[in-house]
Design brief:
Blueprint: E1 5-9, E2 25-30, E3 33-38, H1 39-42, E4 47-52, E5 55-59, E6 62-63, E7 66-67, H2 85-98, E8 105-110, E9 117-120, E10 128-130, E11 133-136, E12 141-147, E13 151-157, E14 162-168, H3 170-174, H4 177-189, E15 196-200, E16 210-211, H5 213-222, E17 230-231, H6 234-239, H7 247-251, E18 264-266, H8 268-278, E19 286-288, H9 303-306, E20 312-318
Parallel strand pairs: 8-10, 8-12, 9-11, 15-19
Antiparallel strand pairs: 1-2, 2-3, 3-4, 4-20, 6-7, 11-14, 12-20, 13-14, 13-15, 16-18, 17-18
């Protein structure tokens, strides 16, 4: 039976906190589920794709004795300790049906915050690979990644009909996993970056993503323009000027009473946009959602905010 759905653009909706052109994103109802789509990808008849929210589903997530989500039900798409496997399987069935991908072979990853990219040609039923990105040109294969604050990225080569799904946390971003995935598409299938549409889905925003000196140093070492993606004392942290060995002496505080080390806020969305642009994807073909998963835990799962939480899923495939 066909899924009844309502489709509308993000313009005028609250909260309309998305980056870029807000009309570039759709919010679509499919039964009790709410799916987010990139309009440019939704317009490709040969493509199935979507980003899940926590709305709807069969799972019950309780926190401090209070049920979260509308009517106490959430669409958890990850096999977490708190959830029942049967409910997650049902949630996935509903999500894939909402994408029109219920007959496609689904590929998942055991994500390890790496730059490992897998090419899929003839995936085995129920196959799970270890890595953080998938590419394919094979029809009937649905590539998926799971997130709960990290950034999901979907790529589609509109000429060669090659697709990719990427999981990019700070480690994957620092290792340029989006650029390396695009490079594999070029090498394996002859993809040209100018033919690619990149959709960066909901992730934790700069407003909430506070990180420390180790992250600042890593990005400073990898990217000449990293400073543009941080708010706060980035230069001091990246250069090591914030040395904890001399900070207590400087502040004249006794040992054990030093102030907390300075922190900075990282914009993972901006970093991945820049990485994709430097890899040759035209700026106008890089779409991004600025929904912050930490701010909007009513709509998305956020590990940083909730700790015990579900998993979102981004999926893409050639029909």
């Amino acid at each position: 039976m066909a899924v009844m759905e309502k489709r509308k653009t993000a313009r005028g909706k609250k909260p309309a906190n998305r980056g870029g052109d807000e009309s570039a994103w759709n919010e679509r109802r499919a039964g009790s589920l709410q799916i987010i789509e990139a309009g440019a990808l939704a317009g490709l008849p040969w493509l199935a794709h979507g980003f899940s929210t926590r709305i709807g589903g069969a799972s019950e997530l309780k926190e401090d004795g209070q049920k979260r989500g509308k009517n106490g039900k959430v669409l958890n798409l990850g096999f977490t300790e708190w959830d029942q496997r049967e409910r997650v399987i049902e949630n996935r069935r509903r999500f894939f049906q909402a994408l029109g991908a219920e007959k496609m072979r689904v590929v998942t990853l055991r994500q390890i915050h790496s730059d490992v990219v897998h090419r899929l040609d003839e995936p085995e039923e129920g196959q799970t690979l270890q890595g953080d990105a998938l590419i394919t040109q094979k029809r009937g294969v649905l590539l998926t990644v799971q997130t709960a604050d990290c950034v999901p990225i979907l790529l589609a080569d509109t000429k060669k009909r090659v697709v990719a799904a990427i999981h990019s946390g700070w480690r994957g971003t620092a290792r340029r996993i989006a650029e390396k995935t695009l490079g594999r598409m070029q090498m394996e299938f002859g993809t040209r970056p100018e033919d690619v549409i990149a959709a960066i889905g909901p992730g934790i925003g700069q407003c909430c993503y506070e990180v420390g000196e180790d992250v600042a140093k890593e990005f400073h070492a990898q990217f000449p323009d990293a400073r543009e993606w941080f708010e706060g004392p980035f230069d001091a942290l990246a250069s090591g000027e914030n040395d904890p060995n001399w900070l207590p002496w400087l502040t004249m505080r006794p040992p054990g009473h030093a102030p907390p080390s300075p922190r900075v806020h990282l914009d993972l969305i901006a970093a991945n946009r820049s990485i994709l642009a430097h890899a040759g994807v035209p700026a106008g073909r890089i779409l991004w959602s600025s929904f912050c998963t930490n701010c909007r835990s009513d709509l998305f799962f956020s590990y940083r905010r909730e700790k015990i939480t579900g998993r979102l899923m981004a999926a893409i495939g050639v029909r």
